[in-house]
Write a structure and sequence with these properties.
CATH class of the largest domain: Alpha Beta
Radius of gyration: 36 Å
Shape: elongated
CATH architecture of the largest domain: Alpha-Beta Complex
Number of domains: 2
Largest sheet: 7 strands, mixed
Order of helices and strands: HHHHHHHHHEHEHEHEEHEEEEHHEHEH
Distance between the termini: 110 Å
Number of helices: 17
Strand content: 5-15%
Amino acid sequence: MYDLNSRILKLFVVLSAVILTTIIYASLPTAKIRPQKHMHSIGGSPKAHSLLLTGKLNSSSHNPGRYIGKRQLTETRIKPELRAFQAVSVGSDIVEILRRKLNEYQTKSKKRPRKRKKSHKPVTIESTLSARSSLQTSRGTSPFRDHPVLTVKLYESGHLNDGIDKHQICKHWGSYPKLLILITSAESHLMERMAIRQTWMHYGSRRDVGMAFVLGSTTNAKLNEALSKENYLYGDMIRGHSIDSHINLTLKTISLLEWTDTHCPRVKYILKTEDDMFINVPKLLDFIDVHKDNRTIYGRLVEQMTLHDEFLSYAIGGAYLLTGDIVHELYVQSLNTFYMEREEVFITGVVAESLNISRVQADSFRNIRITLFPCSIRNTISIDMIEPQEQYELWRMLLDPNVKCKEVLADAEPGENM
């Protein structure tokens, strides 16, 4: 009898302990049962997860604009867990169920594809250019990446000469001017061209300086009519046959070389620049007077590694100076070279290297955006990223007679030949 009572008492104690434990677990907040360190791997704050596990998280309690992606993840990953949780009885082991569900979620999460880390390998010229060639497809990939094409197959020679004042730009085939400045411009950049015409392009009225803009062609009838009217008024726009676009800048530069070779073959120096540059023409003329080299390109040089572990030097395309004796060779050789989109690398790098043309560093070719102080402007040949309205201010500072600056020689000592 004593043993029976003892057994009943022990059973009663065990049952009481089980019931009490179940009640305690059931009364605890479910957010505390789930390990805190895993909450943010699902998405959202700890408060959001507490609402989620209690079934109170919905679109009204969530910011739809900020958390829409996380809410979709919650619906696909967590709601099945909630349904399983609601189906179990109060007497089940809640902690074990949650731990098992969490392990299943983590296992599925580990199977998701991870983003590839960015490669830190040096970028070679060939890989850069093959991925950014001209005439890209609609998806942005180059058709010449795996099948290089000679430039001669892409370039259409000749120019739309109607309206061009050739004699004003280059007198007597270049016998008079010692400097020809050719400015590549997009067809829609009327304000950029007008700002240059009214500022530093005034030097084009000198007998020893010629200036013109270089553009491509367009299929837009209205724009084409507007360009024809503009050229009728100013006569300073050289227009090639290649479609005017950023990816065809190389073709535009080749058009520049062809026009110079055809109409201004005797000019001593050619500056290739762009319509968002400010050119200090007096400083450039001083530079020319100091440098008397042949077969040379002057500018701000950059070196880049090729696939053959060699370094290729080229001039930054915002502004670089060519000696007149290399124009014909550059034009002909560029047509017989595989096409590349980056015109400065193509012309002053690959083609110039194949012709053994020297590239010389000239520090006064800044080709970057600098602090626009009067003295810094006067000691610099080329400044990049200049808005049309800024051209007027820089022009005023360049000519202000009240500004006194310490004179800096125009790169009296040539840089090392590259």
